[in-house]
Design a protein that fits this description.
By secondary structure, the protein is α/β, with parallel strands linked by helices. The chain contains 24 helices and 20 strands. Strands 2, 5, 6, 7, 10, 11, 12, 13 and 14 form a 9-stranded mixed beta sheet that branches. A 5-stranded antiparallel beta sheet has the order 16-17-18-19-20, covered by helices on one side. The longest helix has 26 residues.
């Protein structure tokens, strides 16, 4: 037994002071990240690991203990702050893999600052105060006992620390060990504690054993996907020989198509394009940590993003099968256009891996008429048109991917570019700024389409337009923002709405004006383009499907939703620890109405004022058949298999410097 006097003197030192401080900080982080959490939960999950660190200080720091505590306080505060900010931006818990991308965060610092509520900085206030006191008073470092108190000798201090350390280790194991198999990273962090989750990701990060390369083929993938044939409205190769122009729109969500605010169309040019083209309203993003660069990767490869990190860094050294290589083998020139620095998100290496003949970045577009951190969309399209005209003059068809940038979070459009006047209730709100930015982006797209027509490119091209990723994360919206989103949708804004982006495809004179309601994702763009251009995929592995010829899609999601999230034609499933306690969200609502029949989005009548959700147990007993349309356990497991197969195949590809 420990002498009571020893324990009392131990607790009267910095141990208890910094314990109280860390309780306050961990509670702040939990308030931001988790919903409806009992007050005791942060204490039970965060304190044990914090005490382990404190006990190590007591064991090994003979002198300058206060400074050691202060340094550890700074590190732990930084972790909690990073967890808050990362969650507000991505909706997931930060881990050490994200630290590899810290240089990218500095490039989008305006986005980070826009999510920063002033009270978050309270997490660092005590460090400045205590540090200032230590310096000003020139406290004799390591001595924290009150005047007249007999100092606790180092041996006794270690004895007390050892007991607390052992108890804390046991509690930590009880928090972490039972929750290792949880699919949802948010659930893991809630059960393990934020600090416990961070420690677990470091100590237990062992990649899944890859499936042998010889066992991965297209028949295997098709068997897992279980798609069915669809009577196509177009013959295979209907756009053969045409230029292929892919326009990737920054942060463009599907609700913008057909949206009017007080009678004003937000995106009139894209509305018209959607009405005159093949329009897929039930289309979803599949990006990961790399955001825009991940969208480029998925669209150009028909593979999924990696379990951790951005595809542009994880897979950039591989000999990737890709759309540029496929079309190049069919006689196409290939180029990609992005007005930012090509080194941002390692694109210089990604573009080489994808096999683009040329790329054009800030060196070509310059910095004149800049918005955010690159040339405006108007400048992007204007100078891109010059190059496209040159490429067409060379006589062979071209494939060009164009990456827009001006409507980038936090949507602070220069006053000179603002042309949409919104009602006062939208002023200084994230949805309001978003609509204003996307209205500008739409105007620039209209100018680009006019340019294609004026330069003789329009009639000889296949134009593909889609959003790269969400623009309004649910976890970034405050109370007023959510009220506005409810006004726009006519119901609560949901996770499925958040990741819903549009896909528009048009080949003038070939494609009909038709809305196609089959579900699709970014992974499906490559095979759909291949089908339209007549490019054979017989020898090219792909995880997507031709949206004009196949139905019954299965779309795995990760990063903005917990790993294991998946969509089918009827619902979105989000797991907790696994399938059994996950939740299904129905996609069946009036948002699927034809935009030609909707004059004002506020006229839409929704089934419910809240997101329709049922627990996973509401599915049928049959794991392979669900008459309700909800995701079955079989579909959930097949979606996980697809992501594992994709990563297994990619990490075993030869390095591109050995590609012949």
């Amino acid at each position: 037994m420990l002498p009571r006097s020893s324990l009392t003197r131990f607790l009267s030192g910095p141990f208890i002071l910094f314990t109280v401080i860390m309780i306050i900080k961990s509670s702040l982080a939990w308030m931001v990240i988790f919903d409806d959490i009992p007050v005791w939960k942060p204490l039970l999950t965060e304190l044990p690991l914090i005490w382990i660190c404190f006990c190590l200080i007591e064991w090994f720091a003979a002198k300058r203990r206060m400074w050691a505590y202060l340094a550890l306080n700074l590190v732990l505060s930084g972790i909690f702050f990073a967890a808050i900010m990362y969650y507000k931006y991505y909706g997931v818990i930060v881990n050490y893999h994200a630290l590899a991308q810290v240089n990218q965060v500095t490039s989008v610092k305006s986005s980070m600052f826009s999510l920063l509520d002033p009270y978050y900085l309270f997490i660092f206030a005590d460090i400045l105060i205590i540090g200032g006191i230590l310096i000003r008073r020139r406290i004799k470092l390591g001595v924290t006992e009150r005047p007249g108190q007999i100092p606790l000798d180092r041996r006794s201090r270690r004895r007390v620390a050892s007991v607390i350390l052992m108890i804390s280790l046991v509690i930590c194991m009880l928090n972490i060990y039972p929750n290792r198999a949880s699919m949802s990273e948010i659930t893991q962090a809630e059960q393990m504690g934020i600090l416990g989750y961070e420690a677990y990701t470091i100590l237990a990060d062992r990649p899944d054993k890859p499936v042998p390369l010889e066992e991965i083929d297209q028949d295997h993938i098709d068997q897992i996907k279980q798609t069915t044939g669809l009577e196509s409205i177009l013959d295979s190769g209907a756009a053969k020989g045409r230029n292929v122009i892919i326009l990737q729109l920054e942060s463009f969500q599907n609700f913008l198509i057909g949206l009017k605010v007080d009678g004003q169309e937000v995106t009139p040019h894209l509305n018209q394009l959607a009405q005159e083209s093949l329009y897929f309203p039930n289309f979803y993003q599949q990006v990961g940590q790399g955001n825009t660069s991940d969208a480029e990767f998925v669209v150009n490869t028909s593979f999924y993003t990696p379990p951790n990190g951005a595809a542009s860094t994880v897979y950039a050294d591989k000999a990737l099968p890709s759309l540029p290589k496929l079309l190049s083998s069919n006689g196409y020139q290939t180029a990609t256009f992005h007005s930012n620095d090509v080194r941002f998100w390692n694109r210089d290496q990604l573009y080489q891996a994808l096999g683009f003949d040329q790329y054009y970045d800030i060196d070509y577009f310059g910095t004149a008429d800049s918005i955010a951190f690159s040339a405006s969309d108007e400048m992007l399209y204007s100078k891109t048109l010059d190059k496209l005209e040159e490429m067409q003059a060379e006589g062979s068809p071209f494939y060009a991917q164009i990456i827009s940038m001006s409507a980038h979070h936090p949507y602070h459009l220069p006053e000179r570019k603002v042309s949409l006047t919104l009602p006062e209730r939208y002023t200084d709100t994230l949805p309001g700024d978003y609509l204003v930015s996307q209205h500008y982006a739409d105007q620039a797209v209209g100018q680009f389409i006019d340019g294609l027509k004026q330069r003789g490119l329009w009639e000889n091209s296949l134009l593909v337009v889609y959003g790269d990723h969400l623009g309004l994360p649910i976890y970034s919206l405050d109370r007023d923002d959510k009220v506005l989103m409810k006004e726009i949708y006519g119901r609560e804004y949901t996770s499925a709405d958040m990741i819903n982006i549009p896909l528009i495809m048009t080949a003038p004179g070939v494609t009909p004006a038709e809305q196609l309601d089959q579900i699709g994702g970014q992974v499906d763009i490559l095979p759909t383009i291949a089908g339209l251009t007549g490019a054979s995929l017989q020898d090219q592995l792909h995880f997507g499907q031709d949206l004009l010829r196949e139905s019954g899609n299965l779309l795995p999601e990760r990063y903005y939703l917990p790993t294991g999230s998946v969509l089918n034609d009827a619902s979105l499933f989000i797991p907790e620890t696994g399938y059994g306690d996950g939740t299904h969200y129905s996609l069946a609502d009036a948002g699927r109405q034809d935009i030609r029949q909707v004059e004002n989005r506020s006229e839409l009548k929704k089934e419910s004022s809240e997101e329709a959700a049922v627990p996973a147990t509401a599915t049928t007993d049959d794991d392979t058949v669900s008459s309700s349309g909800y995701i079955t356990k079989d579909e959930y497991e097949r979606a996980l298999d697809l992501m594992h197969l994709s990563n297994s195949y990619l990490i075993q590809l030869p390095d591109r410097n050995t590609e012949k």
